[in-house]
Amino acid sequence: MNIQFDVAIVGGGLVGLATACALSQYALNIAIIDAKIHQHGSLPHGEIGIRASAINGASQRYFSQIGIWDDLCASRRVQEFNEIGVWEKYGQAHLSAHAKDYGYSNLGYIIENNVISHYLYQYAKKCSNIHFYNFEAIDCTFNDDFAFLTLADKTVLQSKLMIGADGAHSWVRRCKNIPVFERDYLHHAVITTVETEYPHQSCARQVFYPNGIIAFLPLWDANKSCLVWSTKPDNAANLTSLCESEFSNQLLALTGDKVGKCQLINPRMVFPLKARFAKQFIKHRLVLIGDAAHTIHPLAGQGVNLGFQDSALLVSTIKQLIDTQKDIGLVNNLKSFEFNRRKDTLVMLTAMRTIQDMFNGDNVLKKTLRTIGMNAINHSSLLKKQLIKYAMHI
């Protein structure tokens, strides 16, 4: 016997949970399928998560729409950042901006991923029309009217629309044989949390050097930041094998005058970095969102925001289809969603490739061009404001 739903979401991470919570506000019966969903149930007090995200204005408004923003703020683990500082270690290029110079209260928020997922999960648990299945999906099939998802315990879920929100190595995407365009950034990201000698002062910092990019995302503790160090794979492996003091010394050599000596407060994790772009975001009774549809370099912190924008537009599209009594699973009814999300993602992918290519290596011509270009932007208030507005999604 099949269990019937309107929407079945494979993947209970940030984007999948947000989509379920937003859809719960309408007359829909929703299933979330994730074998590890219950890991979001606990949030150790005072223990900082290893991964954090830069949340822009659009994502913040989406959290408010869902109904979790006040809870996030009440946790005292949301850190506004009101300044950015970008510089080149072995060059003259630099860029800085402060929110007050453009009439903004801040430039965004840094929030640990596990904090966001915890409050989304707590919200979802209170929704009578959201049902959790903590089993792996092992098969999916489709007919004209429904999508069918078979779980490891042989349960079969039937839905009008299946949403793949199951990450960069999406099982749903593979199940439907959707091709993916990939480009290796030839970088791995070393991610951890550090305590810095100098307080971050609500400033997000990023330093470029010939072999990589180092970013400090300020956390809710004045001297703690999420560190994202993207560098060549062999160097990333070396950085994770170093003892803590040697790691800190290498970090100090590249960033010391800005943040001072750093002390590790979390283990180091390594993630290979690839640009991914699914050839199709939609098929009959199927939509891909978040990392299942696309991944980008973390240098601008926009990856998770792209996922939340996918989620928000998909929810809005589904609502419009329900209001006009149209089928939520038909490709023709989802084409506008796909067009808009593919367009925005391609713009961001192109921008990230251009920036990474421009700062990669120590070529004299590139060094001259990036110095001229970045400093020109830094001295143009109008251009800086436009870039900030785009990044904040205002």
UniProtKB/TrEMBL annotation:
It holds the Pfam family FAD_binding_3. Coiled coil: none annotated. This is 2-octaprenylphenol hydroxylase. The keyword Phosphoprotein does not apply. GO terms for molecular function: 2-polyprenylphenol 6-hydroxylase activity; FAD binding. It comes from the Bacteria. Belongs to the UbiH/COQ6 family. Pathway: Cofactor biosynthesis; ubiquinone biosynthesis. The keyword Flavoprotein applies. Its cofactor is FAD. Component of the Ubi complex metabolon, which regroups five ubiquinone biosynthesis proteins (UbiE, UbiF, UbiG, UbiH and UbiI) and two accessory factors (UbiK and the lipid-binding protein UbiJ). Keywords: FAD, Flavoprotein, Monooxygenase, Oxidoreductase.
